[in-house]
Amino acid sequence: MDMSKHIPWDTVIVGDTLGPIEYVVDKEAVEQYCDDWKDPNPIYLEDSPFGGPVVPPAFRAGLDSFRLLATKFDSHATVGVKTEHQYINPAKIGKRLITTGKIADKYIKRGIEYVVIEYSLVDEDGVEIRRSVDHIALSVERVTDS
């Protein structure tokens, strides 16, 4: 009954941990992001009330769940279908950011297999930046009873 060729349904275990993934957001990456999104907000590029420029809140928000899933599975054929983010603190440019998560749920809806990833982003000092929940379709092929 499995349809995902890359992530077999029975290998997805609710409660399994994912990650960590780590990266440093430098000034050039923020400048490129702001240019791409046509958002030259000075708090990202010059100064902010938080003591220097900060990383835009949505920076990589849509990518981290896929990268987490890829720490355990071949996630290249997956599709994001729903996302929720709670922004707690701004991330400072130049800080190492660490994302960890877990498989919170899995379900089949209208014949499509989904996994739910809950994850959080903290900086190198342990300051919580963001909490997120993403629903990801494991395949766009429908499950059949063959």
What does this protein structure show overall?
This protein is mainly beta. The chain has a domain at 9-25 and 60-137: Hotdog Thioesterase (Thiol Ester Dehydrase, Chain A), CATH 3.10.129. It has three helices and five strands. The chain has helices at residues 27-36, 42-45, 64-70; strands at 17-24, 79-87, 96-109, 112-123, 128-137. It has a five-stranded antiparallel β-sheet. 27% of the residues are buried. The model has no long low-confidence stretch (mean pLDDT 92).
Derived from helix and strand composition plus strand pairing, the structural class reads mainly beta
Helix/strand order, N-terminal first: EHHHEEEE
Distance from first to last alpha carbon: 7 Å
What is the CATH domain class of the domain at 9-25 and 60-137? Alpha Beta
Average pLDDT number: 92
| Strand arrangement, major sheet | 1-3-4-5-2
What is the number of helices? 3
Query: Would you count the extended β strands for me?
Result: 5
Short descriptors:
146 residues; mainly beta; Thiol Ester Dehydrase, Chain A; five-stranded antiparallel sheet
Short description:
The chain has helices at 27-36, 42-45, 64-70, and strands at 17-24, 79-87, 96-109, 112-123, 128-137. It is mostly beta strands.
Could you give the topology of this structure?
Blueprint: E1 17-24, H1 27-36, H2 42-45, H3 64-70, E2 79-87, E3 96-109, E4 112-123, E5 128-137
Antiparallel strand pairs: 1-3, 2-5, 3-4, 4-5
